[in-house]
Hints:
Bound molecules: coenzyme A
Number of strands: 9
CATH architecture: Alpha-Beta Complex
CATH class: Alpha Beta
Amino acid sequence: MSEHLHIERDRGLLTLRMQRPDKKNALTRAMYAGMADVLDEADQDSSVRVVLLTGGEDCFTSGNDLADFLQAPPSGLNSEVFHFMRALFDFSKPVVAAVAGPAVGIGTTLLLHCDLVYVSRSAQLRMPFVNLGLCPEYGSSLILPRLLGHARAAELLLLGESFSGAQAAEWGIANQVLDDGAATLAMAREMAERFLELPPSAVLDSKRLMRAPGREELRKVIEEEGALFGQRLRSPEAIEALSAFMQRRKPDFSRFG
Ligand code: COA
């Protein structure tokens, strides 16, 4: 298990916390693998009723570790990131997310696969895929235009505009915006604990019904996005963008025609 994950069990509530504060909880391959294993095991463990996913009171996650993207880009459906995506996509029990501070890249797209999402006023959500020479991932190219309309989705996915916790709640990506990280975690926990009082099979059946429409289409889109994302990670545009981040300079795309 990655040293950057913290797992806590309290009755049927499993809290999975990303904990790599010096890198804003950037997700390494080991973290993805660990998160996938925790979810796969929790899905099989009948004593787990609900999962709470958080990065703590100050930061959700800055997304994929950009050094990993440059040095060891994931390839294919057997990569750690895909294992994690599949584990969350197929997770049969409720997942509640508590989001404070940055939620970048997969930090935003994974929220589309959670059941309840609570965000802090401090939350800054962003999907800078194109800015990094990449393309949308994890079904966001399908889900967001349907949820927000093409125009607003284009600002988020093509321009990589960031948006606030309040906007996430207004647009239906999150349930509610709270004043700070502590209040967000407390609310997420309170709502997650409600599942402990509910009949578990009825919850599972209902989640399955809610997620069923268009599910196989979405799975296919996630795989198509993943294949293109993997190709784009190796493109000169992405290498320029990722190198610029590591070198703390502005990327220069002027030579690309
Ligand atoms: N991968 C690797 N390292 C990252 C990272 C990432 N995704 N995000 C942040 N870090 C590192 C920084 O390099 C820095 O490391 P250092 O102290 O060793 O130099 C440290 O985390 C703190 O980041 P910093 O940028 O100084 O914090 P900030 O509060 O000014 O900004 C973010 C926070 C998240 C807005 C900013 O770091 C950012 O934009 N990160 C990249 C996000 C991204 O593009 N993710 C991938 C999407 S596909």
